[in-house]
Design goal:
The chain is an alpha+beta fold. The chain is 40% helix and 20% strand. It contains 12 helices and 11 strands. β10, α11 (317-333) and β11 (339-341) form a beta-alpha-beta unit. One of its GO terms (cellular component) is plasma membrane.
């Protein structure tokens, strides 16, 4: 395997990547939509959008493989960074740059690779790639389609989509601490971080009088899933739930894993009734999840408690969370697989 040399302007490239301030953020559905589209369009099993720093390739979205990052020395895309626009390899077993790469000689046994550069501040910061397990040709029309989708990805990459509160929080942390803010299984904010975001959101609500709603979400009968199918399947269920939740949200919404099978969603500038409509869509989305590859008969449902800042008597984000927690308890007590929206007067009943 040939390890690619660093690009001539590696320092400037790394600086542009740092200024994106995106490496250690949770997964975002705006990128997942792109990789899903690539897999459908080109009929390939694997597609990913990745950023490459001095030592590591970070996957901002990956479809078809369960990876968070990989050493730069193993990255197929390290060679694409040296190109002007793209790199196509129709059979990697015949190319000395790739022939003994661990992703060629081992799972997923990659054969075909097509990668298109993603730029920020005119620097090559990452790649958008498709991978197949069979050699294949790649026409000029195929290349044009990949270029169009790469342009879409590059636009998304250079947009600030997270809420100001989330961006500000990340900007205050050094890189090592930024990584510790992410839940390792679901790639969402962890409990400590989502609670900090909620605190900032509530302070903003008090200052600007903008509506604020929260969803407290629990996977129904999750212990039974683990007991019946094992923790590996349980982890897969949590990952799929997290993905379904991300897909339902606006870019500015915040989501975190709050506990074992609990999730917290913060909806800034959102009235409780709007939050309830979103929660109903989430229920339907999760009901339709399929686990045919690991547990064909498995069906998953959620219970969701909803609380809004318009509820009477709320003085802090703790009060808001307590109300959402009571709503969640009522949703589960009423039979699960449903939502419950509480106001403070109802919660005292």
């Amino acid at each position: 395997m040939t390890i690619a040399s660093h690009p001539a302007r590696e320092h400037q490239r790394l600086q542009a990547l740092k200024e994106l301030d995106i490496l250690y953020l949770p997964l975002e559905d705006r990128f997942d939509r792109i990789t899903r589209t690539l897999c459908r369009l080109f009929d390939v099993p694997v597609a990913y959008l990745s950023l490459i720093d001095d030592e590591t390739q970070w996957f901002k979205s990956i479809h078809g493989l369960d990876l968070i990052n990989t050493p730069r020395s193993d990255a197929l895309c390290q060679h694409t960074l040296l190109e002007d626009e793209y790199l196509i390899c129709e059979d990697m077993t015949q190319d000395p740059r790739f022939a003994d790469n661990p992703y060629v000689t081992g799972a997923p046994y990659a054969r075909f690779y097509a990668g298109y550069l993603l730029k920020s501040r005119e620097q090559n910061v990452g790649t958008l790639c498709i991978v197949d397990t069979q050699p294949r040709s790649f026409s000029q029309d195929d290349l044009a389609a990949l270029a169009d989708i790469a342009s879409w990805a590059q636009t998304e990459l250079n947009l600030t989509q997270l809420s100001d509160m989330q961006v500000q929080l990340i900007g205050e942390l050094d890189e090592a601490y930024q990584q510790a803010r992410i839940d390792s299984l679901t790639r969402l904010w962890n409990q400590g971080t989502i609670k900090q975001i909620l605190h900032r959101a509530f302070q903003r609500h008090l200052l600007n009088l903008t509506p604020l709603s929260v969803l407290m979400i629990d996977a129904d009968h999750f212990k039974k899933v683990n007991d019946t199918y094992g923790h590996t399947v349980g982890d897969k269920v949590l990952q799929n739930i997290a993905s379904a939740l991300r897909q339902a949200l606006r870019p500015q919404d915040a989501i975190g894993r709050y506990g074992g099978e609990e999730f917290l969603i913060i909806l800034d500038d959102c009235e409780p009734r709007q939050a309830a409509e979103l929660a109903k869509r989430i229920l339907n989305r999760v009901r339709n999840l399929s686990f045919t590859d690991v547990a064909p008969d498995l069906k998953v449902t959620l219970s969701i408690g909803i609380a809004g800042s318009s509820a009477r008597g709320l003085e802090s984000e703790t009060d808001l969370m307590d109300l959402a927690d009571q709503a969640l308890y009522r949703a589960k007590n009423n039979g699960r697989d449903q939502i419950c929206l509480l106001h403070s007067t109802e919660a005292r009943d």
